[in-house]
Batch of 2 targets.
Target 1
Amino acid sequence: MVEFLKKGNSYNFYRVLKLFYKELINKWVSAGDRASEFAEKGAKIVIILDNAFFHKKEEYLKIIETEM
């Protein structure tokens, strides 16, 4: 999946991460696994970010941590 954004901000960063996470879970489920087991047994993913301010906004970091 490729996502082109009109503006780089914390909300769009969160939205893209959330879509990416959902896509990963969908592929996991389509392979015959349970969505509820993805966090524990699924692939571990490393995303390397630059130092953009919107990658570090505390409000969204907390949301990402609890949702993904």
Target 2
Amino acid sequence: MQHAVGSPLPPPHQPGQGPPGGWSPAGQQPGPHHPGPPPAPPGYAPPSVGPVPPVPQQPVAPPVPDTTGHVRLPPGGPVPMPAAPPAATAPDPTSTTLAVLLIGPAGAGKTSVAKYWADHRRVPTAHISLDDVREWVRSGFADPQSGWNDHSEAQYRLARRTCGFAARNFLANGISCILDDAVFPDRPVVGLGGWKRHVGPGLLPVVLLPGLEIVLERNAERSGNRRLSDEEVARIHGRMAGWYGSGLPIIDNSQLDIAQTAQLLDDVLARSIASPPQW
């Protein structure tokens, strides 16, 4: 059974060809003719009309506020030296926005002390661990325990720079930071200069250096790639002794628990604020 149809359907639209297939709705196919209006008789003039009144303008509604929005964050810049309080006022590091670098060998307790210190401050504080950031790399992770080479050095530098960017952004938004890293006094690649470049001159370094026997005990409780051989621990600890005489504050937490070490860290930082170390 056939049905009567009018003009055929337009062909499928091809991209970039204007109207679909060059088809125009204005009758490409022949159809019934519709003549226009008859011509006006000779001498006819259309009636005059007055001016057209303007169309009243509708008031424009104010824009609807963006209820989701976003919080504008100030950019992170180099961290300046903390301002020393008046001589009559003892500095209170627990309520001051600070950038702290906690240095020490594996097993010194850097991460545990840093987390506890950050958890118990009166102001917002972030803990940034260099080892955690290095281990963001999963496939292709260059473990320095397998030998220090170009890949491990590059990943270390990248992690340190990432930590520095994070610290600057946190601090620019009023959040203190404590970073922990095994910084060697005799190795420029993993020295303090990079931290000062990435965070700023206001970074306050503190060395956490318990006795070798304590470090060995704590290292024995570790697992995975965080656990080192006793020989490696002893070698690192010996090199860390180079911080003595450097002018940096040193905490021997051999006989201190985590809370006591964090309290001593506050005391050391109070002195560093009043008289920043030269490094």
